[in-house]
Amino acid sequence: MDGKKVMTMLKILGITVLLFVSLVALSFAVDLAMGTGFETALSNLRTPFQLMSAAEYCVLILFLAVLFGGQIASVWAKKKNGRQGGRAAKKGTGGNS
């Protein structure tokens, strides 16, 4: 995996997090603009998670695992391959000299 691919994946992850935070902030701001109190606005942000069934929690966890797991696995593989590639290149260069 090259650096371009890792940067692309990190950009996708960053955009996803930015969109999530922006939408949560917008929802919170709309609740406050409608005249609800601070505590009620925070409660409205948590309500969907409080009303979820076990199956919906499983789907949410699976979605987050796919979203973040793929990114983490690729970065981890890149670091692992980078270390092994460095050792192999040194051995190959030293043997040919």
Description:
The chain crosses the membrane at residues 53-77. Keywords: Membrane, Transmembrane, Transmembrane helix. Pfam families: YczF. With 97 residues, the chain is mainly alpha-helical. It has one domain (3-96). It is built from three helices and no strands. The chain has helices at 3-33, 38-50, 54-96. The longest helix has 43 residues, at 54-96. The two termini are 28 Å apart.
Give the arrangement of secondary structure elements.
Blueprint: H1 3-33, H2 38-50, H3 54-96
Pfam families: YczF
Transmembrane segments: 53-77
InterPro entries: YczF
For the structure shown, list the relevant keywords.
about 100 residues, mainly alpha, about 90% helix, transmembrane helix, YczF, transmembrane, membrane
For the sheet with most strands, the description reads: none
Binned, the helix content reads over 70%
The proportion of residues in beta strands is under 5%
Poorly predicted ranges: none
| Tally of individual helices | 3
What Rg, in angstroms, do the CA atoms define? 22 Å
**What is the approximate shape?**
elongated
Q: Report the span from N to C terminus.
A: 28 Å
User: What structural category arises from helix and sheet content?
Assistant: mainly alpha
> How do the helices and strands follow one another from N- to C-terminus?
HHH
Task: Count all strands and give the number.
Answer: 0
Total domain count: 1
Overall pLDDT confidence: 82
